[in-house]
Amino acid sequence: MSDKIAVVTGSGKGIGRAIAERFARAGASVVVCDIDQTAAQSVAESINASGGTAVGFKVDVSNKASVEALVAASLEHFGRVDVVCNNAGVLDDFTPLGAVTDELWQRIIGINLTGTFMVSRAFLPGMLEQGSGTFVNLASMAGLVAQAGGLAYTASKHGVIGLTKQVSADYGQAGIRANAICPGAIETDLSRSFLQDAPEVMAVVESVPAGRQGRPEEIAEMALYLASDESSFVHGASMVIDGGWTIR
Ligand code: NAD
Asked: For residues 193 and 197, what is the distance between their CA atoms, to the nearest angstrom?
C-alpha cells in the first residue's frame, strides 16, 4: 500500500478505525474522516505517533456539501486518492416495516446508501483522471439475507451491494474496482448498542460456527486485501466474513 492514498469514512472508531490503522501499517497515507471530528483527529494523531501518515477531517457522508469539502481537503492535502473505503454506517435497532418512521428511514438510507453513493461519486473524477482507483464498501450480511438488521438497514445494505456491482460494471475497464465486505456480528459500539439488552440475540450471535463475534481487525484484513493490488482480479464481489452466520 506504500504510495497509496486511502480515505476511510467513519474511521473515528470501530471497524473504520481498524481499517485506517491497518492501511497505515501497510504503508498507505490515510484520510481519517468521521462526523465526530475529535475522534477522527485523535485516530489520525495516533497513526502519526506510531510512524504512519494520516490526517483527520470531519465529514457527514449524508451531506453533499460536506462530502465535496472532504474531497477538496483530501486532494489538497495528498494530491490524489487511490482508495475510498465507504465504511460510515448506522444501525436501525432491528425496526420492522410497521414501526419505521420517515425520519428513521431517511437517516439509515441517507447515511448507509446515499452516503456511499455521494462519497463514491465525488471521488470518481479523480480516479478516472488517473486511470485507477478502488472502492471498498462496507455492506453487511444484512445485504445478503433478512433478519440481520431491521427493514431500513437491510434495504440500505442490499443497496450498497447493488451499487458496488454497478460501479464495477460501469468503470472496471477504466481501471476502477469496487467491492463490498459483508461482516457478520463484529464487536463495536454499533453491535453493543443492540446486544447489551438482548441476550436472546447474543445467543444467536454465539451460535454461529465461529462461536463468537468477530473483531474489527479481522474485517480490516479483508479491507486491506480488497484495497491493494493483491486483489487485482476481484471486481464487484461481496466478501462474506461472518463467522459462518449466513451458511445456516
Ligand atoms: P460504529 O458505530 O462503531 O462506528 C461507525 C462510525 O461511523 C462512527 O465513528 C460514527 O461517528 C461514524 N458515522 C456515523 N454517521 C456518520 C456520518 N453521517 N458521516 C460520517 N461518519 C459517520 O460502527 P461499526 O460497527 O464500526 O460499523 C462500521 C460499518 O460496518 C457500518 O457501515 C456498519 O453498517 C458495518 N457493519 C457493522 C457490523 C457490526 O456488527 N459491527 C456488521 C456488519 C456491517
From this structure: 8
Which atom in ligand 1 lies closest to the alpha carbon of residue 181?
44
User: Ligand 1, closest atom to CA 90?
Assistant: 34
Q: Ligand 1: distance of its center to the CA of 189 in Å?
A: 8
> Residues of the chain whose pLDDT is less than 70?
none
pTM of the full predicted structure? 0.98
- Rounded Cα distance between 203 and 180, Å, is 27
Q: What domains are there in the chain, each with its CATH number?
A: 5-239 (3.40.50.720)
* CA pseudo-torsion sign 159, 161, 164, 170: negative
Cα separations in angstroms, 202 against 38, 43, 205: 31, 29, 5
Q: Is 171 an annotated catalytic residue?
A: no
Question: Which of 118, 145, 188 is the best mutation target for the ligand 1 pocket, counting ligand atoms within 8 Å of the beta carbon and taking the most?
Answer: 188
3-state secondary structure of 33: strand
pLDDT tens readout for residues 140-149: 999 999 999 9
